[in-house]
């Protein structure tokens, strides 16, 4: 993976960074924690401009959010609620649950997108609920752009400062992303079990 990322940046330069960051949002196994620190190291060597690397990283990251945003927008809250009412029983999921989640995103979606863009593991997935809740595109792009710029600056700057040891960034951030995903999985299982217990209690009464 490291050699492939490095090779693409060497052959395509700034366009390679932009392309990699678009792909990273669509295919999370491609880690920004390797792409941007590597580009930061290239800037430290004088092969690239640090501000342009950050700009390309931010732009690629924002462009990469759009496909999932539009998929969420096309799917929509009503369709998802109808699906949950028809098929969500095995997940103990109802249309009312979808409505609650959508209302929560309407209230807190801006903060979720802004800070979520800096959390490994969920940063690319947030585009779906943003689209489903019909967050206005300019608003989504604004908060996604700010969060992506901060993330790009942090990772690129780390690679610039670490030099040849830029891969240490991924060594620290990679495990953090797995912990976050694991915690989310545990929270989801706990919620499902809680819902089933509540429904069983209602059935018994």
UniProtKB/TrEMBL annotation:
InterPro entries: DedA_domain, VTT_dom. This is DedA family protein. Residues 30-160 form the VTT domain. It holds the Pfam family VTT_dom. The chain crosses the membrane at residues 12-30, 50-71, 140-163, 175-193. The lineage of its organism: Bacteria, Thermotogati, Deinococcota, Deinococci, Deinococcales. It is found in: Cell membrane. It is a multi-pass membrane protein. PANTHER family: ALKALINE PHOSPHATASE LIKE PROTEIN (PTHR42709), UNDECAPRENYL PHOSPHATE TRANSPORTER A (PTHR42709:SF6). Signal peptide: none annotated.
